[in-house]
Amino acid sequence: MKKFPSRRKSDSRVAGPLRHEAHTGGVAGVVGMGLMGTSISACLLLAGHRLYCVESDPAKLRTASKRLLKLLKDAQVQGVVNASPSTLIKRVTISSEFVGLKAAEIVIESTVEDLPIKRQVIGEIERVVSSNTLIGSNTSAIPVTDLQKNSKHPERIIGLHWAEPAHITRFMEIICGKETSLANARRAVRFARRWGKEPSLLRRDIRGFITNRIMYAMLREAFYLVDSGFASVADIDRSMRNDLGYWITFAGPFRFMDVTGIPAYAAVMKDLLPDLSCATEVPRLMQKVVRSGARGISNAKGFYRYTPTQAKRWEELFMEFSYQIRELAEKYPEDVGDRRSSTRKANK
Ligand SMILES: NC(=O)c1ccc[n+]([C@@H]2O[C@H](COP(=O)([O-])OP(=O)(O)OC[C@H]3O[C@@H](n4cnc5c(N)ncnc54)[C@H](O)[C@@H]3O)[C@@H](O)[C@H]2O)c1
Q1: By CB neighbour count within 10 A (0-12 exposed, 13-18 middle, 19+ buried), where does 240 fall?
Q2: Which CATH number does the domain 221-333 belong to among 1.10.1040.10, 1.10.3720.10, 3.30.70.3490, 3.40.50.2300?
Q3: pTM of the model
């Protein structure tokens, strides 16, 4: 991967916690070395953990170390970490056995989005770790309370919702199930900060958490517009990139309303909300695309057509973009406006 221009290391506006610092110690575990488990592992290594990973699929197990090393090398090229990838990769053991997780202070489950499988994996983790080990599940939408059922120590089970690529994005939702203790939620927040995240804490469990509830409401409307013939897939993508995509890394929806004037939004809501889709079925277009075998760029077949070369290029570009947006976001942490005005006052 090419290095992108201008990482200004001396820029005092760059938020410290987002940069990966070299910490020492602390064993962490990851179960499931798929797409996300691999980038989560990269994040944990970059944050200084020693790591034990579990993968049940022999083919994935064989390639896991190579995939992880590639992410670490890219991170080095981008100047995100000083330690060498070959040193970092020596701090990982990847295996099909759970027993090596026993020394972990935190284990992250990142297997498939399937309640029985996740419950079974949590059971396997609990069999080997100490009662104090925090168990975080990287579920997208399964309620954490459901994951806690029949567990030995439900108070230490918590939702840790990461965004891909997990070693670059600063997103993290930390979700308490009904039985998660607040002390463990606070521990999770401390871990998240150490991993370079800006975590959000959900004290009560709700299906889909924050971003997936909002994103799926948006997806439902996008499909409604296509399925009803109002706009094409490409037109919707173009509009969203250039409107929402332009401001959403700078400000969340509430800050954005503050910045752009609140009353107009109330006026629009009055007429628009009754008009929005409330469909509960999987949209027609989505059903058709899934039936066709499309998986997206991973098999070069999606809402758009790709040659294998184009699909690969989209994958690489997404990774490049992720580093660039991270660098931009570092200049605009959530309290950037407050900080700058207080700096000005202090200088007067
Ligand atoms: N892909 C994303 O962008 C994204 C974002 C947020 C959350 N998530 C959630 O993260 C989880 C993983 O998603 P993914 O995209 O990495 O999936 P994936 O299919 O790429 O990876 C899952 C991995 O878990 C392994 N696995 C399955 N059962 C196992 C077991 N019993 N023991 C050990 N390993 C096992 C599989 O072999 C596979 O390698 C899902 O719950 C998903 O909903 C994904």
Answers
A1: middle
A2: 1.10.1040.10
A3: 0.85
